[in-house]
Write a structure and sequence with these properties.
The chain folds into 2 domains: 61 residues; 128 residues, no CATH class. It has 8 helices and no strands. Helix 1 packs antiparallel against helix 3, helix 4 packs across helix 8 and helix 6 packs antiparallel against helix 7. 78% of the residues lie in helices and 0% in strands. The chain is mainly α.
Length: 191
């Protein structure tokens, strides 16, 4: 569990540097723009690797905290579908989902983490998804507050952008849920 927690601290910690723009700007000045991006990427990658390794190690000694009802797994599938659509909204240009939320990837992270917390009751999952949920709640609030203070609003979207976003999100979700989740994560959500 130690490696999982260390990985979360590194990965989510480096993703919190945007909450302290003055500190981040000092680091960019210190290392240069490319140097900071390289350091940021290196810390994020190290954190990600530690999360994967730590989670796999935690699977060896499972600690069950609660047993969710079976229907929570179905709810999690719906939450994850919505999260994939929100993830697509962060990248597909000209959609109204991005225009409305401002930070759809962070909103998707909240929904993804909440769905997994509700449907899986092992300690390792509570640590992993709980950490991502707390980070996403804080990040979303901070980013929205920052955008309001700066008067920033995303460009308005179109129906065409919305349709493309939903199609991309649904296709990505289906590929991941039906074919990739099992080999990559070790759990087949749909048998």
């Amino acid at each position: 569990m130690t490696m999982l927690i260390l990985g979360l601290v590194l990965f989510l910690g480096i993703h919190c540097t945007g909450f302290a723009p003055a500190w981040r700007d000092r680091q960019v000045a210190r290392f240069g723009a490319n140097g900071w991006k390289g350091l940021y990427s290196l810390v994020a990658l190290a954190g990600f690797v530690l999360i994967i390794w730590g989670f796999q190690q935690a699977r060896l000694n499972p600690v069950l905290l609660y047993t969710p009802p079976v229907w929570m797994g179905h709810l999690n599938a719906l939450f994850t579908l919505i999260a994939f659509i929100l993830l697509a909204a962060a990248y597909v240009p000209g959609n109204r989902i991005h225009a409305k939320l401002g930070h759809p990837m962070v909103a998707g992270t909240k929904i993804w983490a909440l769905g997994h917390l509700l449907s899986i009751g092992f300690l390792r999952d509570v640590v992993l998804f709980g950490a991502f949920l707390v980070w996403a709640i804080v990040a979303f609030a901070r980013l929205r507050r920052r955008d309001r203070a700066r008067g920033v609003s995303p460009a308005p979207g179109t129906l065409k952008g919305d349709v493309i976003t939903v199609v991309v999100g649904v296709v990505a979700w289906a590929l991941f849920a039906f074919w990739l989740h099992g080999p990559l994560i070790g759990v087949r959500p749909f048998g």
